[in-house]
User: Fold these one by one.
Assistant:
Number 1:
Amino acid sequence: MDGPGTFVPISARLHPKKTLKSSPESKFWSSFKTTFLTYNLPITSINFCPEPPHDFVVTSSATLFTFDGITFTPKSTIRKFSDVAYSGTFRPDGKLLAAGGESGNVQIFNPKGDPLRRLVGHVHPVHYVSYPHNDKLHILSGGDDGLVKWWDVASETEITTLSGHRDYIRCGSPSPASEHLWATGSYDDMVRLWDLRNTSPVMELGHGKPVEAAVFLPSGGFLATAGGNVVKIWDVIGGGKLVHTMESHNKTVTSLCVGKALVPGESEQSRLLSVSIDGYLKVFDYMSFKVVHTAKFPASLLSVGMSPSSSCRVAGSSNGRFFIGKRKGHKVEPKKDGPDELMLPIEGVGEENGKWAPTKPWHRGYFQRGQTEKHSEGDLVVNQPKRVRVPQHDKLLRKFHHKEAFVSALNSNNPEVVVPVMEELVARKAMVRSVMNLDLEELELLMKFLDKYVTLPRYAGLLMRFAERVLQLRGEDIEGSEELTYHVLRLKGMVSEEIQIQRSLLEIQGIISPILRMAGR
Amino acid sequence: MIQGGKNLVYRPPAFSGDGKRLLVCTGNTVSIYGTSTGLLITELVGHTATVTSVIVLPVAAPASKIASYCWTSSLDGTIRYWDFSSSQLIKTLEVNHSIYSMVIPNISGPPADDNGEKGDLYALISADSSKSSAQQRGLSGQILVYNLTKSVLLKNTVSETLKPETLVGSYSGEFVGIVTARRLLIWKPPRKNTDWVNLGKFRVRLHHTKSFTTLAFHPSERIVAGGDITGRILIWRGFGKRRFAKQSLTSRRDVENEEERPGVRGNDDAESCATWHWHSTEVKFLSFSSDGAYLYSGGGEGVLVAWQLDTGKKTFLPRFGSALRYFVDSPDPSLSSISSADNQIHLVNLQAMKVLKSIPGIKLPFAIPEIYEGLWSNGFAVVSSAGLVALRTENYGVQFYSLLHDREITQVVVCNRNYQTNDDVTVVVSLLALSGDGSEMSTVEVRLPEEGIGGLVCLKFWECGSHSGDFALSTVIYDPHGDAGISAVAFHPTRSMVVSSSYGGNFKIWIRSMDIQKKDGSLQKGGWRCQSIGTYKKNPMTAAAFSADGSVLAVAAGFVITLWNPNTNTLVAVMGETPEPIVALSFIPNAEHLLSVSRGSNPQLSVWNLSKLSLSWAYALCAEAMACDMNSSKFAVLVLAPAKVLSGVSSHRDGLILLFEAEDAVPIATWCVKKAKGGGLAFLQEDHFTKTENTTNGKIDGKSSTRLVYLNGDHEYIVFNPFNSGDDTTSKPHDWYHPLENEEPFGYKAMYGKLPDSTDKRENLETVAFELTDKPWETLFSGSSHVLPPLSKLCHVFLASLLEKKKEVTT
């Protein structure tokens, strides 16, 4: 039975909505669930294979670890190095691996770890080794001797040596636009672009700090370099012009990589990921020059990688922790062999020749037919009238059981519920009476609520006065009970803390107001 | 001149015999509403004072479709007989007593005499007493019998009462009763004409310890129910068995034992008495269902309670949003009407416990607590362009009422809370302001604290939807001025800007940020935010107003007026001093003048010259309301007449409306009005009037067509032309009345449906006006008789001329 006016449950005051912090993209980036493995030694390099399933290789000390790109589990371990290995990298088809090393040699393995070739030429450690994008036969390496060498892998011969860098070469990147164009970065603060058909650099970009990482952005027109705590973006086609400087890291940026953001409803967009000694991973939108996401890791990060399928994002730290971030909702698809169990027909509903056959009356399903039927597009759906759930305190208020309603609200221990009930009781002039009627247990409930929320700015105006009134009304009862006294003491603590805060705020106001006054002139 | 805003619930209404119409006493007229549409059909105009009761003749035979006659009684001392289907007055009977209530016991036709002659029709009337002897005893009411057939007032007074009481008759006309203080008095109207003289002798008294408020008779049995002020319902069964026994039985039996008559007090003539108590406040009405199985009761809680008479079980129809006043049954068992105190009549289906339709009247003023001293607000605002008035309602809302059509437009719920009838109001919509075009509204609601805890002032901004009065909440601001209350809210005339002034000593200017179209196509609604705050010497700000062009903001800071530039929030000037704090300000458009009102022991109405920044002229008058004409420099003020010593009866004080020219202290016109306390004034703009006048009178009113609205303390209003008292003949707008729609099909139609439309095609033809080319017979016979040809020859020509094929006239 419903009257002419419908029952209105009490409602909380409206408050401004919190501004939506998470854009869909930051939601994507925060959807990576991070786990870690520990290797004890710094992880200097991570390289993903561009071919699906995007296996990746991780270089840590004298070992290369390869991981499966779908299950993110270790696949094989290569320990064929006499000294520290650097820059383990996949051949674009994923069938070979190459790595430099402290010895100055570049070694080629198959994924199982059998050494196949050894490129000897560098006299100093080789920190950078890379295959070109679409070429299985050559390798570019950069060493601490300041030389860049271009190798023919099959014959283990050096094709060209490019000299120009005056310090250790620590990074480089093949251009996605041209197979001849390479960029290498060195500790002499310079990034040099090489055309392999020439021996002298095509372009020299002064980064200003020892260059730790360099990567071409997917279009090939831009180059991102990292050195010191800045990441710089250069327009290569436009003559090496500095486009943007990102200074959001606090310490040296150690590695860069390019990843794709898969935002539902939008086309996939490339982002630049950078990691730094300060332990932060930042995702940079180089179109709008904005940091779109920041993640903090509990260690200094040395290397970063992101799967081309965006299914995982990995980072390696200086203390040997290897962080694997798996994207939530990215399902590991089981291999299909044999008929899928899920597709088996339900009992009683036979499937013949691809058509649903009518069930026979001796089947159980005959009697259950149509029960799970979903309505089709054009059907008129008659919904069951929704039962409005009226909260307990509203039911009690409706019956004018004021104290019971108050206690029921207190039990929820949610100020969003309690305060509106209190306001309603005030409007009915029943607040004081219901406080008087509370028994000791209920009073404790109230005191517990008060000492928790009394200084919450949103409700302080009401609760402060109310607390004072409660203490006046029920002083004797409170003195008699230990628990209640404890709550009063806590309340006192909360209030004095609040007074402290207010005082310091006033001090700040006192400092600021003359400044504002002067600024206003 | 338009009058409206009548109280629909002053007296109980009456249903017509077929239950399709509802006759409602509205002031001096009886308004007839259609029960299916809830719209006004027509009015019975004739009484010169308030109509107090309507009695419809019941349908004698079901076959006769229209038995639409009714009796009405009025305070003007007449009883009138009407044919309400054609709204014609048939008969007027002079009684010469102000009639407060009337009952015609044998309405369905007086019983036949022993001789087979039809008896006369008698009415019991409750009138004010004219006898000085009775008045000296403090009895100002009396109950009389009037012979309607012979138009004679019987000499014998049935009873004398402290004040004129409401008479209640039983369905069958067997009993008539009244309540007086702690007693129910019941008479049994006689069958014989001659016995009416001695009616007063046959009386039963039933006693109670509390004051009664209402009573009701069972339709078939000897059961009477009485409700008292504490909410109890007493039900006596078998009353008057002794008293109304055969008159021949003179020897009375002895007083029966108490045990045999449970609950009956003293020597009361009843068999038993039961008490039911559910209502927490006064029982306002009681009514038995037509089959006698249920008793309906209602009261201040706004809940209709249906009691099962045998078991006492209750069912409820709650949340009417206001106290209930009257309950009237219709001949149709599924239709009843409930009059609620907020001037609304609900048509209820009691079988389904459902409200079918509501006939809303203008919301009545209600008692609000004195929140702040001298708050200038009568709780309404006028949209002058649309002819709408917005009134606050008791259940925390705002009603939009069309002044021109005397009809509710819509209601807006300001505070979403269940209405509770407390003794004292704790939540109230205190202020209400509308922007000039009526597209934005601002309300202030106040929640009063309990012992200093939990008070709240809430400023709300509303935006109008597609049609006027359809408001949606835009912004809520809690405690906009801290703990301090808001004294005034005013809209900027052209921009989305609002000023709110507070007793806490500051005023705030609020502006609306525009809606922002977001990148993803969603619309981010713009809200209102504070633009600036101003204070003047920490004085409480008591009133605020924008000038007509919006360039100046005047804020009254107690005794002085401060003028501000609202855009830069800079103080421009300070004016004068008044003896009492100013409570209201208003700029007079088209003149450099500002009007201020202060109340208190030393009230003053002042006109300030803005160019000289000085007082222009002032009167020591207590102004209740003021209004400025937007097109001229005239303004009207409603002032209260000094409280008369003589008229101490009513709290409604009489007043004066004064029309001034801004420069001139001598009023142009004055009108004397009643119930000025709590009244209001407003000017309405022309459009509607010229339109209605064009349609009704067919001529264009070339002159100023501004109208002045006066809303009195009871929210009755009058719209008139203040500048030209002569042509106040404007009839009601043509869409004032609504014909009764959807005549029920009957007879053949009801059984077989409507016949195909077989009306003559002739009707569909356009009527073509014909005109004779000339009048040949005029010349035919002219000339002297001796030159005329013989008549036999002329006859042929004459007839041919008459039968001439006439040509079509193009008009």
Note: The two ends of chain A are 67 Å apart (CA to CA).
Number 2:
Amino acid sequence: MENGEDIKVLGTWPSPFVIRVKIALNMKGIVYESLEEVEGLPYKSELLLKSNPIYKKVPVLIHGGKPLCESLIILQYIDEAFTIDGASSLLPSCPYDSALARFWAFYLDDKWFPSLIGILKAKTKEAKEESKKQVEQGLELLEEAFKKISKGKRWFNGDKIGYLDLAFGSHLGWLKAIEKSENLNLFDEKKTPNLIEWAQCFLSDDNVKKVMHEIDKFVEYGHKLKIKWGVAN
Amino acid sequence: MANEEVKLYGMTLSPFVLRVEWALKLKHIEYEYVNEDLKNKSPQLLHYNPVHKQVPVLVHNGKPICESTLILEYIDDVWKTSCPLLPSDPHEKAVARFWAKFAEEKCLHSSFDVISNAGEELQKAVEELQQNLKTLEGYLQGKKFFGGDIIGLVDIVAGWIPCWLPMIEELVGVTIVDEEHLPLIKAWMHDILELDVVKKTMPPLDKTAAHMKAIRENVLAAKST
């Protein structure tokens, strides 16, 4: 990385999509300015609207004045633009392993996370139960994927946290918060023992702890969202 | 590459499968095409794609890769030397990935809304698709293709537009892309259709039009009950 290259991250603290970008930057030892979109405001900052005019969403990474959007794309950019040596790659060098990591990351964001948030949004007991079932089924798939992909190591990416660990781990704040607020156990000691251990390791990692807020903050924020969605008072 | 076994599980009428074929042909990769009947999926397909059970699936030396845009990137990663689909500069690569995602999520999905609606809802869906195509057109500014002088990832992902959109327009009886409002997209559509790889793989127009008509009729009938 060039010295003096200006790196900014536009984000909000509860967003898993922002969390993963910040952890990745921390892991690569990259210094960046964190610009928080203030929660609760009805409008978005001018910088956000200018940097991401199409989706108007966080995260946005602004590197040397050039904005990039979409968190999984940003993770790949961070990996490609800031590789110091092969050992610190977020994505595996083998194209097949890389494709697998991307497949599961996309599944997590496209299918699994909406089901997870669906538990909070549910207006009926049946809807909540259905979302919970989808989350649990997804976790079982991910447990099997972990066994194959990790090849006996600690992380999906092997010896170090990688792209898929970040894609999944960034959702743990919400997973733990929803378990607490809805009085659920989404991980299962018998069905997802590897993921339980993996999640504990992830949340204990220093680079993650710098970014991930306490679970109670997520719980509090989740309650505000439920009020906004009309499912709580 | 010698001794490479490449199989593509697909379906003739699928734009997701077609884009993978383009990439394979552009890179001169020999492959076996396995046609799937989606109403009666083969055990191999279900084995290779147990999560989504969909085509396309690329099986390379026995290992399956699913999701068409992931397959395109995989092909580009493995067969690096010929016809790169993505720029080498990390920033430009990220920008190309962004536009490929936009073309997929906003343009392709808007087209489904067009096929699935009638009356006022159809008009709204058409306007939204036109708006999204206008946004996509911005990335074409000053270039023949999204990839520059030769086609790249975004052209391939958006490749359904020149092949399918004229049929959609005929099906719903509305012009969606015209020279006045989307001049660059119109010109790009023409240039894509001139490419050898596209001419050789054009889907059978009659069958595709009939298939789309059947989908539209089913969806509209379901909505009115």
Note: DSSP finds ten helices and four strands in chain B.
